Amino acid sequence: MKRIEIDLHGLxxxxxxxxxxxxxxxxxxxxxxxITGNSIKMRKIVVDWFNKNELEYIEYVHSASYLVRQ
Length: 70
Fold this sequence. Notes:
- The chain is an alpha+beta fold and 70 residues long.
- It contains two helices and four strands; from the N terminus they run βαβαββ.
- Strands 1-2-4-3 form a four-stranded mixed sheet, with helices on one face.
- The mean pLDDT is 92.
């Protein structure tokens, strides 16, 4: 089974939380790789959102992404 990727490239910082909520809550995705790119601000927004919503994640430093499992 292919892992779902949520690629945040091209999104404005203000759009990230909506995109994550849509994927993990509305579409009910249980496992995905969230690709942030190298933007420090984007990575902080994503990690803060994961923590606020109590999602478990693993950071992949080499690929600028996170693996999320619910």
